[in-house]
What we know:
This protein is 70% helix and 1% strand. It has 10 helices and 2 strands. It has one domain: Rhomboid-like fold, CATH 1.20.1540.10. Strands 1-2 form a two-stranded antiparallel ribbon. The longest helix has 35 residues, at 234-268. It has helices at 2-15, 18-40, 45-52, 73-76, 84-105, 107-136, 150-165, 179-199, 207-221, 234-268, and strands spanning 55-56, 145-146. By secondary structure, the chain is mostly helical.
Amino acid sequence: MKVVNSNLKTWIAINFRATVFFLALNTILGVLTYIIAYAFYRGSDSFALVLLGAQILPGSEAPFASLILDPFRFLTSAFLHGGIVHLLFNMYALYAIGGFVERYYGSKKMFTAYIITAISGSLLSFVMSLLSVWNNSGVASGVAISVGASGAVFGLIGLILGNKFLKKNTYSMDLNIDIGNLIWIVVINIFLGFSLNSLGTGVIINNWAHIGGLAGGLILGSIFDTSETFHASRFKQIFEKSLFILSVLLFVLAWVFNIYSIVTRFIII
């Protein structure tokens, strides 16, 4: 049994690719959202997304208000998307940026960065929505939800920028990417996001999730060593490994509680 377990761990360590895993999971959940929406909710993907773990923002009215503080939704929402265009756009960005990050940092740190920055994006989104409700003293007509991998994608960009501008020299090679282009991508996307929201186009972009993910990525970028780092302290190695283990636990627990919620709240009841 020990030999089998050892071989399995070795195979996973060699073959696991976090970017491919996240691309596959996001895509599978995108298809599942479509199926559930048309099979049970007459094509309404909003209800399907709530069922599957979308983040419910402050201001949503009853009965959705009772789901606002479900902690697992702060992570599971980063694997759901509101339509095919939303999914394809984010998956292209994840493929491009995630693949680069994984080449330089390895699969474990890529996995950690996605999970941590997805949560940081959701946290800032929650806080800013709460402040908006507090200032306006109002509630949404129905349910206000937030979904998408873009907060984590911005987090991966933040990881690269944090490495470039905030990290102390650890004798590792420079990341081979055009930093200027990355900065322009961030600036243009955030500008367009706030502009589209203010124009009332009907397209609502959660800019605070993007900014929260970016901030989380900047912090990780100032800490994480790349795979080619020549010297890393023992403390740094233990810290990065512990953060990876925490990320795996958060991921597993989020989906366990999400599935439990689906069964107890939406199926049994």
